[in-house]
């Protein structure tokens, strides 16, 4: 499990952990039933307070992404809330698109120009993936 936090971000650290784990579950990097690091281990790895990790794990448990079994550890749920994970994936995709479009518009590109280049690049990636 790889998590990077940005201490200078406006997003609280526990939410950065929540988003990172949700992303890894949604993309299949963390599999159902896979055990997560303990609160103490993750806190040590990230060099943060264990209470911050505990808060993130509590949030993830409440969202139905993970389950904590007393004395055994914390695991990705066997049947995570698929609707929630789909929403997370869509939100992340929208955020990536917003960033790219905002940057292109700020550089003076017209919306038609952005769409044309996007469509061409997407078509190129589809062709490459089929090869």
What does the secondary structure layout of this molecule look like, with pairings?
Layout: H1 13-26, H2 39-46, H3 50-62, E1 66-69, E2 73-76, H4 82-106, H5 111-130
Antiparallel strand pairs: 1-2
Helix pairs in contact: 1-3, 1-4, 2-3
Give the CA-CA distance, first to last residue.
31 Å
CATH architecture classification of the largest domain: Orthogonal Bundle
Largest sheet: 2 strands, antiparallel
Strand percentage lies at: 5-15%
| CATH class wording of the largest domain | Mainly Alpha
Based on CA atoms alone, the radius of gyration comes out at: 18 Å
Strand order of the largest sheet: 1-2
Uncertain segments = none
- Mean model confidence by pLDDT: 89
Keywords:
61% helix, 2 domains, two-stranded antiparallel sheet, 131 residues, mainly alpha, 5 helices, Arc Repressor Mutant, subunit A
Would you kindly provide a written description of the structure presented here, covering whatever features stand out?
This protein has helices at 13-26, 39-46, 50-62, 82-106, 111-130, and strands at 66-69, 73-76. The mean pLDDT is 89. The protein has a two-stranded antiparallel ribbon with strand order 1-2. It contains five helices and two strands. The two termini are 31 Å apart. With 131 residues, it is mainly α. The protein folds into two domains: 13-76, Winged helix-like DNA-binding domain superfamily/Winged helix DNA-binding domain (Arc Repressor Mutant, subunit A, Orthogonal Bundle), CATH 1.10.10; 82-130.
